UniProtKB/TrEMBL annotation:
InterPro entries: LapA_dom. Keywords: Cell membrane, Membrane, Transmembrane, Transmembrane helix. Pfam families: LapA_dom. This is DUF1049 domain-containing protein. The lineage of its organism: Bacteria, Pseudomonadati, Pseudomonadota, Gammaproteobacteria, Pseudomonadales. GO terms for cellular component: plasma membrane. It comes from the Bacteria. The chain crosses the membrane at residues 7-25, 45-67. Residues 26-72 form the Lipopolysaccharide assembly protein A domain.
Length: 77
């Protein structure tokens, strides 16, 4: 049973890696973003999407921790 789980995990990781590789290879068009007067150098679309994913993966749990902390600090009346 342990071997089956390990094989399934390896297959899932390979599928995710192939999906990421396909995404990066399909999104090689260079773009420049402009936001509130800031502009970026021209980079592939996949770079911006990957950076947005990483920022979201960092900000999401931090906001969850802040909300949980505020919930604990509220006195029950």
């Amino acid at each position: 049973m342990r071997g089956v789980k390990r094989v399934a995990l390896v297959l899932i990781v390979l599928i995710v890696a192939l999906a990421i590789l396909a995404f990066v290879l399909e999104n090689q068009q260079d773009v420049a973003l402009a936001f509130l007067g800031w502009s970026t150098p021209q980079l592939p679309v996949s770079v911006f999407v990957t950076l947005a994913l990483i920022v979201g993966m960092l900000v999401g749990p931090l906001l969850g921790l802040l909300a949980q902390r505020k919930r604990r600090q509220k006195p029950v009346v």
